[in-house]
Amino acid sequence: MIDLIDVSKSYVKGSLAVNHANLHVDKGEFVFVVGSSGSGKSTLIKLLMKELDTTSGQLIVSGERLETMKHRRVAKYRRKLGVVFQDFRLLKDRNVYENVAFAQRVVGRPGKVIRRRVPEVLQEVGLAGKDKSYPDELSGGEQQRVALARALVNRPDILLADEPTGNLDPQTAEEIMNLLAEINERGTTVLVVTHNKDIVNAMKKRVVTMHEGVIVSDEKEGGYHEA
Amino acid sequence: MRPSTIWFTLKQGVKNIKRNWMFSLASILTMAACIFLVGVFYSIVNNVDNIAHKVEQEVPITVFFEEGTTQEQIDVIGEQIRQRPEVENIVFKSAEEAWNDFKDQYFQGSEAAEGFKDDNPLVNSANYQVYMNQIEMQSDLVSYIQGLEHVREVEQSEQAAKTLGSFNRLVSVASMVVIGLLVLISIFLIHNTISVGVSVRKEEIGIMKYIGATDGFVRAPFVMEGIVLGVIGAAIPLTALYFLYNSAVEYVLTKFNVLTGVVAFIPVYEIYQTLLPLGLALGIGIGLIGSFWTTRKHLRV
To answer: Per-residue pLDDT for B246 more than 90?
Structure first.
């Protein structure tokens, strides 16, 4: 599903944010990417989203070669991904339903499909009955659930989560991670960048550790190690 | 595009306009001023053109021949003149016809003319009356005819032609410059208005892009905003001009009585056959260019 072959990314000549990384993620896997600030985790997510271009190497996601992808193809490619961020990035002037429906409008789904699919996905993330609420009326955990619903509404192949629990208290963080695990069990490949040591250690999933742009370890049912 | 997507885009476009209505209003007013001036100049140039055209048709160049020129030679001259592209029509007047016209005009049936009964005093007055379709070419045509064999004299109404021709050129050039400047200002203002909209919605645009919105989808509401501004900016002056035109014509005709009957103004519906699509195209064009320019700069994520 995801293949990095000797991928490097440099912002300034000489220093590599991602340094000759090799990684293979199968369909349906759940992977944590961990590491300290500046280790290259967020750059990795941006490369996968095609927000950034690789400097060298091959990057293949869901059968598509990202390093040679033309700009006009990027939008279609991103529809295969669901993305959530630490700061939720919800539209404050729209209610929960509209925030999620927005993702379907953007990809041109007909109104009938939107009216059926949005309540369904809100149910999946545990937000049934909250569709009329505005983001400011929701707790952090609920906002992240809306973001998750928005990421999932178009049934992506891969879910990328960049520090999804960074703004949440431990209990809510655990709930969100459990939700991510459930989504994974339903068949979506999930890649989570996180700092959350307790959760990584508790969940016993595959853990990829980065340090100064290099993938220093890759363990099945691993734990959080400071590199 | 699905109907729901078009509806969504239109709603977003109108929302943008409402959200920064001050800028939108400034854009609309500048564009309205621009299109109003286009309309005013267009009406003036067309009416002057119309009058000049009438002069061209009504005041011919008269060509006289040397003494002893035969009818065959006159026919050859006629053929040569007829072949010039600026010539609309050419009429031959024999010496007898010229004398008859003269009699009608100056003796008005009086018997004094009978004294010349058998001796046409205008015996050398056979002539061609040449009617033109391009008044600016008059002096060219005159020198061409003067160069022809057996031509004695060419009379022309050069002053009227020159004055109208140069007036029209002046109005055209001045209007082009002013309109050009206003078009540029309008595009710049639309660009500013839409830039504000883009920066207000920067977050939303970012979200749209990573959800998988195409550039076209992200751009569409802004382009729609430009078009809506353009249509409103065109509709205001076009409506105003429609009513002002008739009042202006009436005013000119009452203020300058002498013009009544001499000058025929083009009816407003005739002017609008071109001005309406021209004004709308200009408004929509300015809106499109302004919005495309802005979104090209800001939307490549």
So the answer is: no
Alpha-carbon distance of B103 to B117, in angstroms, equals 11
Structure tokens at A165: 């629990």
Cβ contact A1:A184 at 8 Å: no
Query: Could you tell me the residue ranges of all domains in chain B?
Result: 3-55+161-298, 60-156
What pLDDT score does B31 carry? 84
Q: Count, in order, helices (H) and strands (E) of chain B.
A: 9, 4
Read off the pLDDT of residues A118-140 as tens digits, 9 standing for 90 and up.
Answer: 999 999 899 988 999 999 999 99
Report the alpha-carbon distance of residue B289 to residue B283 in Å, rounded: 10
Q: How far is A103 from chain B (nearest CA, A)?
A: 6
Cβ–Cβ contact A79 with B under 8 A: yes
A103 to chain B: closest CA residue: B211
- Contacts B210 to A, Cβ<8 Å: 49, 51, 78, 83
Mean pLDDT value across residues B19-41 = 85
Residue from A105, A115, A152, A159 whose CB has the most chain B CBs within 10 Å, to mutate: A105
In angstroms, rounded to a whole number, what is the distance separating the alpha carbons of residues B151 and B73?
Answer: 10
Test B214 with A75 for CB contact under 8 angstroms: yes
Terminal CA-to-CA distance of chain B, rounded, Å? 22
Q: How far is CA B19 from the centre of its chain?
A: 39
**Assigned token pair, B81:** 């003149």
Nearest CA in chain B to A91: B204
Q: Is the pLDDT of residue B236 over 90?
A: yes
Q: What is the pLDDT of residues B190-229, one digit of tens each?
A: 888 888 878 878 888 888 888 888 888 888 888 888 888 8
Shortest distance, CA A201 to any CA of chain B (angstroms):
30
Report phi then psi at A50, rounded to 5: 60, 30
Domain B60-156 has CATH 3.30.70.3040: yes
Q: What is the pLDDT of residue B301?
A: 47
How far is CA A119 from each of CA A77, A116, A153, A154, A187, rounded to the nearest angstrom? 25, 6, 10, 13, 20
Q: Cβ of B135: how many Cβ atoms within 10 Å?
A: 23
